[in-house]
Design brief:
Helices cover 36% and strands 14% of the residues. The chain is an alpha+beta fold. The strands form two sheets. Strands 4, 5, 6, 7, 8 and 10 form a six-stranded mixed β-sheet that branches. A four-stranded antiparallel β-sheet has the order 2-1-3-9. Helix 1 packs across helix 3, helix 6 runs antiparallel to helix 7 and helix 7 packs across helix 9. The longest helix is centred in the last third of the chain and has 16 residues. The chain is globular.
């Protein structure tokens, strides 16, 4: 059996069980948008928040392209993508699932003491712990731990072992914990000059507008994505990085936007670290 046929059959089997699937290209990332969908020209899936009303037959809009429709999976545009794909991806949240992505041995050891047992799937460097139930996706909820559910994709690595259990409160609570891996240093709280010791970025509307513009800049990029992501991170940190305004939620929004454009988690982490270094933070 050819690799292409194997990937398609795996995708169709998952789709038949209610798991939305999509092909992933080299680097284990989604295919880029077609010309008609570039820069959200199709008018669908604005800011990746909704699955419509785009009518594009291609594999566009990253995780939002995931489908359970066998006719779409076998269609000519998708067939062409499968020939270039290296693996099958799926949208956990679309299947009512949450994947706790444990990236190393330390993260696995933590999970074994902190989380209830569930279905586990070995990965290249760690394990995926899969729970029944969907939630918000957040990267780096603690060192070596990402949560992939709604508005995210995961690589399908096999059925795994163990019994699927309900999403516990212990996992949901992780999104409220400060991230020690990528959070902006909160010790940098010196007031800006000319504001009477009060940080102007604490105005919610000001900060939200800046974050929305940053996410839009990344989302609408269709060339030089690496450079755009770094420049956007640099701009956000130069404006908001010294006053303690940024939280893990803000950082996660930027990382998610970059990853939907095909950036890897490692590239996002490196770009963020380089921006911090450049600004002396």
């Amino acid at each position: 059996m050819s690799e292409t046929l194997h990937l398609q059959r795996t995708a169709l089997s998952l789709a038949a069980s209610g798991v939305p699937v999509l092909p992933l290209r080299r680097g284990k990332v989604p295919f880029g948008n077609c010309t008609a969908c570039a820069d959200n020209a199709c008018g669908g899936r604005p800011n990746m928040k909704t699955p419509g009303p785009c009518r594009c037959p291609g594999v566009c809009h990253a995780w939002a392209a995931a489908t359970t429709d066998p006719a779409v999976i076998a269609s000519p545009p998708w067939a062409a993508a499968w020939r270039r794909a290296v693996c099958v991806g799926y949208h956990p949240g679309g299947a009512g699932l949450t994947v706790v992505d444990l990236d190393d041995a330390d993260a696995i050891a933590w999970a074994r003491t902190a989380l209830p047992a569930t279905r586990t799937v070995p990965t290249t460097r760690g394990e995926h712990w899969i729970y029944r139930g969907a939630m918000r996706s957040v990267n780096a909820v603690r060192p070596g731990v990402d949560i992939k559910s709604t508005m995210a994709y995961a690589r399908y690595l096999g059925p795994g072992a163990g019994t699927l259990t309900d999403l516990p409160d212990a996992v949901r609570a992780l999104v409220k914990e400060p991230s020690t891996a990528r959070r902006v240093p909160q010790g940098l709280t010196a007031p800006l000059r000319g504001h009477g010791g009060e940080c102007p970025h604490r105005t919610p509307a000001y900060l939200e507008r800046g974050m929305a513009m940053a996410v839009q800049r990344i989302t609408e990029s269709h060339s030089a994505v690496h450079a755009t992501v770094y420049q956007t991170f640099l701009a956000v940190l130069s404006t908001h990085g010294q006053c303690g305004c940024l939280t893990e939620t803000h950082v996660a929004r930027l990382f998610t936007a970059a990853q939907t454009k095909g950036e890897s988690l490692r590239h996002c982490t490196d770009a963020w670290a380089n921006a911090l270094t450049t600004l002396g933070l």
